[in-house]
Amino acid sequence: MTMAKRAYHPNSYLTKTKNVRQGLISRTEILLVLEEEKFSTKTISEKSELSYSVVLHHLHLLEDEKIVTIVRRGKPFIWALTGLGQKSLSGSSSS
After folding, report:
1. Alpha-carbon distance 73 to 4, whole Å?
2. Hey, what CATH class is 10-81 in?
3. What is the pLDDT of residues 18-44, one digit of tens each?
C-alpha cells in the first residue's frame, strides 16, 4: 500500500464506527477508486488491492454513513459516491 506519506480521505472518517488506522487506510483506498467512476465490489477490490470481503465490509459502513450508495442492484451491484461529506483537496489548485 502507498499510504505512508498520504493523508486519509476526508470521508474515510466515520461517525458511527471507531476509526482505526487500518480502516481509515482501507476506506481511503476505496474512496479514491470510487472518485474515478462507479464500480462493482469486485472491481473496487481489484483496483484497491484489498480483499473482496474487506471492500464489502467498508462499503456497507460507508453506505450506512450515506457516503456511498448502490446505483444498480442487479448482478453485480454497482457502487458510487453520493456527493455527501467532505471533498478531497488533492485535485484542487490554490492559485
Report:
1. 35
2. mainly alpha
3. 999 999 999 999 999 999 999 999 999
Structure pTM?
A: 0.82
Q: Residue 65 has which C-alpha cell?
A: 454513513
- Residue 6: per-residue pLDDT: 65
Q: What angle do CA 30, 80, 21 make, to 5 degrees?
A: 25
Q: How many other C-beta atoms lie within 10 A of the C-beta of residue 21?
A: 9
| Count of C-beta atoms within a 10 Å radius of residue 62 | 24
- Grid cell for residue 44: 473496487
For residues 51 and 37, the answer to whether their CB atoms sit within 8 Å is: no
Domains of the chain, by residue range, sit at 10-81
- The 10s digit of each residue's pLDDT in 38-95 is 999 999 999 999 999 999 999 999 999 999 999 988 889 999 999 887 655 554 443 3
**For residues 32 and 30, what is the distance between their CA atoms, to the nearest angstrom?**
5
Contacts of 6 (CB under 8 A, 6+ apart): 28
